[in-house]
Write a structure and sequence with these properties.
Number of domains: 2
Radius of gyration: 20 Å
Structural class: alpha/beta
Distance between the termini: 24 Å
Number of strands: 16
Number of helices: 10
Shape: globular
CATH class of the largest domain: Alpha Beta
Length: 328
């Protein structure tokens, strides 16, 4: 009798109830693959967008891209992973909301600290790699640069805030509650702004003496985008990497000219970690800073794997702080 395992799939997009649990035969392991028995799975906002049909996906689809667990079975050609080691992976074929998964070995890293709690590692992975490329791959952050981070108390926001502070930046962060502002100050953000009650553009101008910030990390979208343009200094960079309030839409080149010869990019972690070596470099940098205590990982919300629908409800409603993790 073949062994079975369970996972979530989305056959038809919709609300959290669209997450359907299925039990199926366990997948065999190929020569360049590793079977990972999951311990903890990262939940990211993009998962909710795929489930809801707000991001393109071929249906039916698995859900989730990153997880941490134990390497249970190793393919014949795999040399860098040993059976029984705790590993992490990020693989852009969705399917990590599962009890186990067979993953290409090149998308797997062995955790340098084998004692790191699985939920912390899972909470760090997707968000931490996003923070890595945002802070190190787009524009050199000079010591003393002022930067604006939107949704700074979220999973990416907290990791990004700490990484930028580590590089010497002065971080201005927006949040939507005073409670989140209090959390943010514990993670290296010198200036927290509670919006919409406070004017973040005015705060930026006050902190920078009217000059504006070197980089705006724009992860809200339509609701804050124009203010983000007004917050950038001359030759400033607007990094649009998320838009839960809606796509900002077309931007006039004349508008960028009059705002100060601004630059705009819409990057994705999938592009910046598409090459296996980039993924490994980013993971090494991330877990090295976690090991050294430079980056603190806040897992604000933990759910059992089978409660994934509730995790989606809470993350969309803004009821989460820091990283969101499913435990197996």
């Amino acid at each position: 009798m073949s062994r079975t395992t369970g996972r979530f799939v989305v056959e038809h997009t919709g609300g959290p109830e669209a997450l359907q649990w299925v039990v199926e035969a366990a997948q065999p392991v190929g020569p360049n693959e590793v079977r990972v028995r999951h311990e903890a799975i990262g939940v990211d906002y993009i998962d909710t967008q795929i489930r809801a049909g707000e991001m393109p996906a071929t249906l039916p689809t698995g859900i989730g891209f990153a997880a941490v667990g134990i390497a249970d079975e190793i393919g014949a050609n795999v040399a860098h992973v040993k059976q029984g080691q705790r590993v992490a992976y990020m693989y852009f074929t969705a399917g990590s909301y599962a009890e186990e998964r067979v993953v290409p070995a090149e998308r797997i890293v062995v955790l340098p600290d084998q004692e790191l709690q699985p939920d912390l590692a899972a909470g760090a992975l997707f968000r931490g790699l996003t923070a890595w490329y945002l802070s190190t791959r787009l524009r050199k952050i000079e010591r003393g640069d002022a930067v604006l981070v939107h949704a700074a108390a979220g999973g990416v926001g907290l990791m990004l805030t700490q990484w930028l502070a580590h590089l010497g930046a002065t971080v201005i962060g927006t949040v939507d509650t005073q409670q989140k502002a209090d959390v943010l100050r514990e993670f290296g953000c010198e200036h927290a702004v509670v919006i919409p009650g406070e004017d973040f553009v005015a705060k930026v101008r006050d902190v920078t003496g009217g000059k504006g910030v070197a980089v705006v990390y724009e992860s809200i979208g339509r609701a804050t985008f124009e203010g983000s343009l007004d917050s950038a200094r001359r030759f400033g960079l607007i990094v649009s990497f998320g838009w839960p309030s809606g796509d900002p839409g077309p931007v006039s080149l004349m508008h960028l000219r009059t705002k100060g010869s601004l630059f705009i990019t819409r990057p994705t972690v999938t592009q910046y970690t598409a090459d296996a070596q980039d993924f490994r470099d980013g993971a090494a940098a991330l877990f090295g800073l976690v090991r050294d205590g430079v980056l603190k990982v806040k897992v604000g919300n933990r759910y059992s794997l089978r409660d994934a629908a509730q995790a989606h409800r809470d993350i969309v409603a803004g009821r989460t702080v820091g990283s969101v993790v499913l435990t197996v």
